[in-house]
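Explain this fold:

***
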Amino acid sequence: MKSTLKTKQEQLNLKTQLLLDDFSLLNETNQQHKVSKWTTFKYWYYDTSANIYKYFVRHPLYGYSFKRILYGLITLLLSVIILYAVIRTITPDVKYLPADIRKTGLSKEQINILLIDRMKRFGVYGPLIPQILTYLKNITPFIPKQVVIGSEVVISTNGQAIIDSSRLITETRYLYLGVTTATSVAEEGSDALKTFLDAMPYSFAIGSVSVLISYALAILIGVRAAKKKGKLFDNVFNGVSALLLAIPSIVIIIGTFIFSVAVLGNSGIYNTGSFATRFWPIFAIVVINLPGIATFVRRYSWWNDCWLC
């Protein structure tokens, strides 16, 4: 009976010690007897897990935030893998050749050599799984990697072979997004990251101004609609909002662009156009954002006595 009580008391003391900040299961084990490296690692893992668990119990908001971030990263990783695999699977290899390759008069063997060279540059040569792993490594920052940015080829003078010698040009990068294949975005083979960074100032300028205008107008319209619920202004607002929300954003963007260029004669190039050229992209984004924001303001508005109404 005394032995049973002693055992229960020792278990109770161990549970109490586990909740202490300075308790280490690894140190307690080493004090009792010498253990193997595997057992030491196992106890270190249990000890670390217990400390992390106690920290998150004391700070539940940190634990919740950590889980949300972790699940978000896992979801993003799976989305990238699935999207890359689907696009790579449905894209035939001939798409990586120039559109006018047949006009060069090259033989089938010469075209195959050129295709392999271009696929290596685009990062799509070889089995699918190594391609995915290489892509994930390339888009992961802070990891230096050797990437192919071009190639040097020597074309024979007699035209019997397209390549007598070939050498891939590599460079050390910490972040590499590949090269562009769509000529509508940039010149074929241009660095995707450089293309993205060149477009960022224009995107930021258009987006920031559009958001400010959208919120300013949406607050005014939403408050006004809340004040006039059930009346003509509110009914017109609801009808127009429902119509604009039902139209896909891409349709509004393309429609505004075609109208500004084909009808009004504005320039299609943002950095060389007039004020009107810069106005219409902002207008399109305001039209897209304003109905949703104004509807939210109308629904939860409490400014019934606002002087603006």
Q: What stands out?
A: The longest helix spans residues 192-227. The chain is about 65% helix and 5% strand.
